[in-house]
Amino acid sequence: MTQKIKWDYSPAPEGTDHILLKDKYDLFINGEFIPGKDGKYFDTINPATEKKIAKVAEAGKTDVDKAVRSARKAYENTWSKMPAKERGKYIFRIARLLQERAREFSVIETLDGGKPIRESRDVDIPLAAAHFFYHAGWADKLEYAFPGRSAKSLGVVGQIIPWNFPLLMAAWKIAPALATGNTVVLKPAETTPLTAMKLAEIIQEADLPPGVVNIVTGAGETGKQLVNHGDINKIAFTGSTDVGKYIMKSVAGSGKKYTLELGGKAANIIFEDAAIDQAVEGIVNSIFFNQGHVCCAGSRLYVQEGVADEVISKLRKRMDSLIVGDPLDKNTDIGAINSKMQLDKIKEYVKLGTDEGGTIFQPSCSLPKKGYWFAPTIFTDVSQSNRIVQEEIFGPVLAIQTFRTVDEVINKANNSPYGLSSGVWTDKGSKIFKVTQDIRAGVIWANTFNKFDPASPFGGYKESGVGSEGGIEGLSGYVNLV
Amino acid sequence: MSQRIDIQKTYKLFIGGKFPRTESGRYIKWMDKKESMVVNICRGSRKDFRNAMVSARGAVSGWSTRTAYNRAQILYRIGEMLEGRREQFMAELILQGLTIKQAKNEIDQSIDRLIYYAGWADKFQQVFSRVNPVSLPYFNFTIPESTGVVAAIAPDDSSLLGLVSIIAPVIAGGNSIVILASESFPLCSISFAEVLQTSDVPGGVVNILTGYRKELLEHFSSHMDVNAIIYCGDNTDDQKLVETNAALNVKHVILFPNQDWSKDQHESPYHILKCQETKTTWHPIGV
Question: Least crowded by CB within 10 Å, which of A88, A466, B65, B183?
């Protein structure tokens, strides 16, 4: 009998001594950091330790109004009048400064949001910088983006972003808005405001004209003030479908434009002829990347019957080796759940999954005592009508079903109010094109999952949203074509 | 010899390639200005709309997966058929109050608009698709893809050209449509269905209802299987209702204020894009 040897990784924590964080962050309005009128602050905590990192100003109605006025003034007086080429150079500057300070931003992103440092270091921060760099170059080339039409900026854009990719979402929103000549009021999520405030420092360093970018921190109420402000020309929102619908209703009849990146319940489809080991790695990446806090996460897995047992047993084995724990540790695969509220929601869904008759599997990993944690989880013996198959959980929870034919799986995949993304695993090229053509979703990954790029449009069908971000399609959401 | 009695036309709805009467059995009396002719127009109901939606949804997958060349030819064929029925439309447009010259222009432009969009059906995807230079070893491309079923409230003042200007870009892009004809001038909108029916347009791709805007707008905008809603008109309460109801299932909203539909701006591939989604596919490069 062979003895099972357990190899433990030694801790490999990323240092935090090189980062600069203040105890208190004010609002960023008209190029300056100013306290909110009511003097209210809220705490932002590290979800891995539950320790407070800093206090952050809560913007009220007057503050949001001030930010919008400052953005309007900057739009009228400076930004819309500046030659596009110069506008672009400012955005390039932001990209460069972000690249220079990438390590600091990675650490802060991980501290504030709980995601593994490996991801903030290799994905979030480099992609954020890439978004600024890509869009900077568009500023003076818009006539090539829209043949036959001329692109005019909209004015002041209100942008509301989520907590799952804090800096990256800020970059997705701000970069195309600026490149197309708009000015911005951005509201970061209340649990992850820090990298946005650090970005404000970079914006100051880049000498961007005051008021071109304003950042107001706060929770839903602050977002509401921004959505309902009378002098906003467009709302760009990333977040839940419920809030997206609220925004649509709020701006109805106002003439405000909007783009919405909403929820998802992506089907990840494994065919019998797929490279199984790669596919298993792909499943892990599709649902456990960023603790499953990903709107395009592959949270519905469909495995063709002939390989179902093999795939599920390999997946379980792979899950046993996932490292859940300190997000700052470079070996960590799954970090902390972003907030207590989100953790409670995930727990509720997992209980529901069990109550509905699903068979649960979680690896035997030890979770830290302090902080918000949830072990990677898969459910088998579930069906299309189960709520954990229909609804977005936004956590490391996967619902697995099987299928026999291509038609069947396409039907099942499309049987959802969402249509953000999907994955297809097969070695047969023609099958890839057939399935990707028939799936009603905006982003489809063939033999991969969760890949992003500033040049690649990202956006959903059906209740997953309106409009795209990234690429030329992303630009079109920030201009009027005349 | 006794004088021959005319056969008068019964104006019905156009659903799933067939001409049913409204299931509600209701009608609207329509008469021309001189009151020389009185016609009973179907007062379409919510149920008629829902039936039309079932037809439209059923037709989407077949229509959107036809070759672009075939869709282009069918649009061209609609133009051909309209050309062949000029006299019928002249008579109806004049009855609806246009002068001979205006009626002729309206027909000419409606035909030309169909031919214009026929030409785009097999090109817009080429013009608006891209290969994106991503910084990872993937072949990444983006294409426009039809959104699905479009519900539309046609322009009230332009019953043929306005109707055609809404329908053509929607179906050129591979969508199906349920459209509420002009309430004030419904005759030639329903007659246009006869053109569609003889043009190899598959049943259900275009469905035309008549009835009251006020009654049907709520249902057009709130139906949960509609992917995009087009509203033509200046009524701000209507516009707000459409935008509010669109939130129920995140429909795309396209508003056209009252305008001159003969203008060149109504011929543009960007009108096709209004009812298109954007699909991006990542495909690995490797051995």
Answer: B65
